[in-house]
Amino acid sequence: MSKTLHFPSPRHLNSLYANREENLAYAERSLGVKLISRDDWLKIEPPGGATAASAADAIKRAEALFHFLNEARGQGMTIRSPDFHRITDSFARGEGDQMRALIDEPLVIATKRKTVVPKTLGQKLYLQSMLEHPVVFGIGPAGTGKTYLAMAAAVSALLRNEVERIILTRPAVEAGETLGFLPGDLREKILPYLRPLYDALGDMMDPEDTTRLTEKGIIEIAPLAYMRGRTLSRCFVVLDEAQNTTPEQMMMFLTRLGEDSRMVVTGDITQIDLPRSKQSGLLEVRHILRDIPGIAFHTFSGGDVVRHPLVSRIIAAYDAYRNPMNREPGPPEKS
């Protein structure tokens, strides 16, 4: 019992597993099959000793995986090793139907320099929320694309003339370090806090366009404190690192919402850098606004991490450490 899949070219086939033979070995271990790749074809064989039923099921999952990868490639998705591992794990867990939703109902965000396609079901649902609700909260661990996707949606809305300005902001809170006196003018002093927003913006627009639009005030990047007293109309506003806002700052920011504007608030509640005496506004707002129509809360999990595969394992390890109920017993202490 085996199945052979054919593709347009060897290069096409290799791109489905990120041009790395070790990824085929990873799929073999995860799906319980044997994979043989030659030229433009891939042969799927069952493992030795498997029953007819289990062999058929394993081959079916592997075939579905590569059909999915092929369709994803056809829709412009570049498959990296972390993507291959993540998608393979989903099919191994029997979540192929959920993954197919990414392909059967594609959601694409166009920016000037690239087309952004959600890489996980969680990312797709997050993007859908941004298209359907004026205010969206994206909460989750590092590496899930919370800020990046919000930036992509903002740039796309500006290019489609749905908004007149993009405003990007974050609280100027030090991440556990004392930066001390920073030389230079005001822009140079706050740049370290806002650098991640500039980096994401530079990935989606040409530097010349970014400079020109920033000089005209069409794109504004500023600390959260600069939002006080303003009414933000016909804007796409992104508040990043919102876990470092106080309740007062969060209320101040949300009440800046003006006519025909959209807001996206992102944050990771496991990385709060506020003094212990101050509560996070992001923690509080989930309880206050969760039932308000027009406001959506989207929570990411470790499975949505799109950085190196180790990042999701690091997050899981920290979660287990912080929650004793999930912690595995360690070695007995020596007396």
Briefly summarize what is shown.
The protein is of the alpha/beta class. It has helices at residues 10-16, 21-31, 52-74, 81-92, 96-104, 121-132, 146-159, 186-202, 207-215, 247-254, 281-289, 309-322, and strands spanning 3-6, 34-38, 41-45, 109-110, 115-116, 135-139, 165-170, 219-223, 235-239, 262-267, 295-299. Strand 9, helix 10 (247-254) and strand 10 form a beta-alpha-beta unit.
Name the features:
disordered C terminus, 11 strands, 335 residues, 3-stranded antiparallel β-sheet, 43% helix, 6-stranded parallel β-sheet, elongated
Describe the structure.
With 335 residues, the chain is an alpha/beta fold. It is 43% helix and 15% strand. It has 12 helices and 11 strands. It has helices spanning 10-16, 21-31, 52-74, 81-92, 96-104, 121-132, 146-159, 186-202, 207-215, 247-254, 281-289, 309-322, and strands at 3-6, 34-38, 41-45, 109-110, 115-116, 135-139, 165-170, 219-223, 235-239, 262-267, 295-299. Helix 10 (247-254) links the parallel strand 9 and strand 10 (262-267). Helix 3 (52-74) packs antiparallel against helix 4 and helix 10 (247-254) packs across helix 11. The longest helix is centred in the N-terminal third of the chain and has 23 residues, at 52-74. It is elongated and about 70 Å long. The N and C termini lie far apart (58 Å). The model is unreliable at 175-181 and 326-335 (pLDDT under 50).
Proportion of residues in extended strands: 5-15%
Spell out the helices and strands N to C: EHHEEHHHEEHEHEHHEEHEHEH
Share in helix: 40-55%
N/C terminus separation: 58 Å
Gyration radius, in Å: 23 Å
Count of helix runs: 12
What is the global morphology?
elongated
Give the uncertain stretches in residue-range form. Answer: 175-181, 326-335
Largest sheet: 6 strands, parallel
Structural category is alpha/beta
